[in-house]
Amino acid sequence: MVTPIATKGGSIRLVALASLIGTTIEWYDFFLYGTAAALVFNRLFFPTFDSRVGTLAAFGTYSVGFFARPFGGIVAGHYGDRIGRRSVLILTLVLMGVATFCVGLMPTYAQIGPWAAVVLVVLRIIQGLGVGGEWGGAVLMAVEHSPANARGFYGSWPQIGVPLGLLLSTAVFARFARLPEHQFLSWGWRVPFLISILLVAVGLFIRLRILETPAFERVKQAGTEARHPIIEVLQTHPKEVLLSMGARFAENGAFYIYTVFVLVYGTQKVGMDRQTVLSGILIAAACALFAIPLCGALSDRIGRRPVYLFGACVTALFAYPLFWLLDTGSTPIVWLALVVALVFAHSPMYGPQAAFLSELFGTRVRYSGASLGYQLSSVIAGGLSPFIATALLPYGRVALAGYIVGMALTTIAAVLIASETKDRTIG
Fold first, then answer.
1. What is the pLDDT of residues 181-211, one digit of tens each?
2. Can you tell me the distance from the alpha carbon of 288 to that of 344, in angstroms, rounded to the nearest whole number?
3. What contacts 277, CB < 8 A, 6 or more positions away?
4. For residues 146 and 116, what is the distance between their CA atoms, to the nearest angstrom?
5. Is 65 within 8 Å of 128 (Cβ atoms)?
6. Cα 322 to Cα 166: distance, rounded to the nearest angstrom
7. Does the pTM exceed 0.85?
8. pLDDT single digits (tens) 25-69
9. How far apart are CA 234 and CA 41, in angstroms?
10. Which is nearest to 139 in space by CA: 105, 88, 183?
């Protein structure tokens, strides 16, 4: 029998660690697809197109997962606000893990023709549903268990799952990318997807040991759960949903340019070796592991908005220099550019984000509200950014930088309009 983790005293660290491990596994699965879409899927599932069009088609299937994420967030938010955060988190992990494992078993275009792309889209939709429900539950487990003066810090722990998942998926994929071309394309790319099932088993063991959050337990004991959380949140918190969406534009959209589109830009535009670009992403993700909790902790001291705004401003200011540095083709310069992007632009937004978005909503509808704002923005920003950036590729670095600046300005406006939430009571 699995014994749940206690939630008194110092055990908040165990709860936060459990949330971190779970999100790491889910993001490993999700990022694995993005790396494969940039480097492999255009050749295996869209071989009848030229390189650029095939890459656009591959990123099209990648974007489908983002369009599924709001639906996952809505369903998970409904049940997370009705029956609890813990049960929903177990389901999202299973959905994500099974879909990722099945991608590794898929036949390609050479075997079943265009149907291969159809199956790929279906599995990507299931991935999107899983990760769409994951974020809200994982961050609420950490934030709602946290002491009031450390919500930014502990809320950042599940956020660390993003760079850690990126680090693991990129490292594993990079290992098999070293195989001879024909071996990599025939079976090597499948192995990272297949081994994810082992990570899911570990994640399930850990999540079964987490207790429900005190904030939700109080709502449940009082019998005041929302009957229709998604309807209630749209009626009572429409402004907060929109501000949550806007706050994520620069963070989410630019992140997938830094970690997914950069593979296309580096290999196809600059002519760099794919291993060199993957190594740069690995180094930047490793640095972000430390930057994210530091930014979360800083937001506990000076507020969510100042830290968040710093990251959004750096995103805008670094947009053009990023591509200028990438165009040098110099390995250390490219690696430095990616480190700056993830550490000084992305991390100051992502570190305090879990606490910031969670504190905007009441406990009755917090899962639904935070998930809805977060995942709707994922569709418009993160889901489309590699696709849009690839389409802008022929127009050069000015067009690409302008796209990033536009997203950054949206985020700056949203955060300036939003109220500071650091000292709010969350129930």
1. 888 888 988 999 898 888 888 878 877 777 7
2. 9
3. 262, 263, 266, 267, 334
4. 45
5. yes
6. 20
7. no
8. 877 877 787 778 777 888 888 777 777 777 777 777 777 777 888
9. 38
10. 88
